[in-house]
Amino acid sequence: MELVANYLDVRLMIIVVFLYIVGLFLKQVPWFKANWAIPILLWMLGIFITFLYTAYVLGDGLLPSTLIVSIIQGTLTAAMAVFGYEIIKQITHR
Question: Are 52 and 15 in contact (CB under 8 A)?
Answer without folding.
Answer: no
